[in-house]
């Protein structure tokens, strides 16, 4: 069954809070591919339990409105929470909480058996919330409650509408270190993949007066003969088109002028490489004979992650999407979508609600 709904789980005792929050869940907040669902959609004569179970199976994102009444609800604890938390632990859905009133949520753990047979103990506070349990909505004056609902809606919008990449990162992503060194009127290029050098070449070279996006590609890979040989060796296929596969490029140079170039804007034959799944990193003061190959690390303890980027940064979403993939491998069970902050206002808002354990910028 297609997961195409945002499921709102709440206690009937919190009806007033539910209605106040739903005023902010406008179509502009929700993703165009998702529909909001709550028990308010159940029509007279319909089987109440069956409708909720069908809605759970179609859930892509769950929003839990947490209070003590929510935690002690027999129906929620027996039928809704086990399904939603298990689906979240198996990375089938996204899940977040809006804390309405003071509760014992920090003491309430759920013991689950995943489809893999693994047993996990889960506390709702380990998932990134729309606010903090120690600062619930009810603790605020009415005007500030509206602000909290509005901010929660903005954060939910961010969760439902992550930055898109023109080309999804899937399949193999190649690793390539490009070492650049100016030697008088020449430029030495050394290409390293994994544990061996692919190729190196020294060409006469003049610094472009105003390097364009096409110049950036040529600085890295030279003219047609050079780049074709590099990508033929890297991809092991022919013809060696640079956009055939996404590539993680590490620029290794100690030259300050080369280091200052906006490599993420590189273009080949009209294609912006970052839009084709490429990412660029800068390495300085290192003696690399090969691309570093770091061991895979798997973690079970949850850790909030904050990603900071400038709204003017070109194609930064591609680099962050690659990092999100790495985080997902590191936290296969307890990984939650990272926070994004593009402005000082967003950064302050995230920092006030929950202190991240990792900040990436």
From TrEMBL:
Protein name from the UniProt record: TIR domain-containing protein
Any Pfam family: TIR_2
Cross-referenced InterPro entries: TIR_dom, Toll_tir_struct_dom_sf
PROSITE patterns given in the database record: TIR
All residue ranges annotated as the TIR domain in the record: 2-156
Biological process terms in GO annotation: signal transduction
